[in-house]
Design a protein that fits this description.
The structure is a homodimer. Chain A is about 50% helix and about 15% strand. By secondary structure, the first copy, chain A, is α/β, with parallel strands linked by helices. The radius of gyration of chain A is 23 Å and the shape is globular. Chain B binds a DNA duplex (22 and 22 nucleotides) through α1, α3 and β2.
Chain lengths: ~240, ~240
DNA sequence: GTCTGTGAAGGGCTTCACAGCT
DNA sequence: AGCTGTGAAGCCCTTCACAGAC
């Protein structure tokens, strides 16, 4: 959902794993399922089982995994623990990401407390806000720091990922400051498009857009049901009569 | 990011607008920009301007809009107000969606207070939770109700969209109950895959997956920079010397 | 001349079917 | 026999280039 400008300046010299964007998104999902399987003590899993749990077709899953090189054993299945490690490596999760979060409003607070981050190798190392009422309070085990000290503190924190959870009006300036301290990965919850240098990856999560997409397919389905639901019933009857 | 099984049972009889999924996602973005333009008092906008503000190419934007039929005037541009209405209609936002939210933890609270919903035609009509400590409290102007009264209350509320913001362990059962009260659009923040009937659209937002995708392209970029960044500098030097 | 609308070419992702290993 | 790995076909989407309206 984020633009992938496919880096026109890419000189094709160094290329790590060349994995399709869509596959990367699903690898993250498989990882979740695999972690659950590890906890259950499952040792081997087949592509059918894994695909079912992840909600995709088994062929698609095998194709996805094929980008990591041979990971399974034919006639048997996949070694759960080994596959999990392999995916973590491919996604770069072995590097131990340090996350700074800017904006500790209600959304920021929820994110800081979200257990899914820590459990998957993302350590939140800093919380920042400009509101004096929030600075100094403790959220999710961390003390909220003054945005005025942001640049200085980041020298120590050395963050690899920045999260933007501030109001729209200041989102771009926060983005610039993140870029200024050399953060190359930014996750923004501000609804607008943010401009950043080409070598900085910005992903945007817009909750209203998710809702609007639901609204579209929803109105399509409702419509179809109010019509074809009945139509299907009629056809079924007609078919029954006719045959 | 949600599966689109492309409705195998679709008899092709009734078809509303036949708009590509990817386009729908962007239409929602254009809508945001257009709303901002309306507030600024802008009357006419060109595809270049609109595309720049939305962060896409102008050709892509025009292609997207072409699915709505002729919406602009050649040699002039688009009527901002008219285009906004046209998109709202296409997305089914004119129907006034009623949203019920289940799970009022820190995430649920943040969502309930999120101003972007109300401002775009989504009215939150009910908050539910099973935790006695939360039931009865007021969040975002609404009183949190007991999950035990869910089915009964929904008869009155007649929700069109359901939001799931509960822990993983109960997400599927909440999903089933939403389906039970005839909600056909579900937005889930639980990390796992949820099963639902075919005519129910489930979208999932997994924050950890967004992070992991960042991690991937991030490690790819960092790598590339540590190598090609320097290489590029060397090449620039070499080029300067050579020319 | 300017800017929109659109057929056509191109690229990426999905699906299928089957070869290949155990 | 069972299950993985993978070329090939097909589909959807993006990009290009230009015809067409003002």
């Amino acid at each position: 959902m984020t633009e992938q400008p496919s880096a026109p300046g890419d000189s094709g010299a160094v290329r790590s794993a060349d994995i399709p964007q869509a596959t990367v998104a699903r690898l993250a999902m498989y990882l979740r399922v695999l972690s659950a399987l590890v906890e259950d003590g499952t040792l081997i899993v087949s592509s059918d089982e894994l695909a079912l749990a992840a909600g995709v077709g088994s062929a698609k899953l095998r194709k996805d995994l094929s980008f990591l090189g041979p990971t399974g054993v034919r006639g048997v299945g996949y070694d759960v623990a080994r596959l999990r490690e392999r995916i973590e490596l491919a996604l770069g999760l072995d590097q131990g990401h340090r996350v700074v979060m800017v904006g500790v409003g209600s959304l920021g607070r929820a994110l800081a407390c979200y257990p899914g981050f820590a459990s998957r190798g993302f350590t939140i190392v800093g919380l920042f806000d400009a509101d004096p009422a929030v600075i100094g309070t403790v959220v999710g085990g961390l003390t909220v720091e003054d945005m005025a000290t942001f640049e200085t503190r980041c020298l120590d924190l050395d963050p690899t990922i920045g999260v933007i959870a501030v109001p729209e009006s200041v989102a771009q300036s926060i983005c610039d400051r993140l870029v200024g301290v050399d953060v190359r990965c930014i996750l923004s919850f501000a609804p607008q498009f943010l401009t950043a240098p080409e070598n900085v990856e910005v992903r945007r999560v817009d909750l209203a857009i998710e809702m609007q997409m639901l609204s579209f397919t929803g109105s399509r389905n409702t419509w179809a049901n109010e019509a074809t639901g009945d139509v299907a019933a009629h056809l079924a009857l007609a078919g029954a009569v006719q045959s």
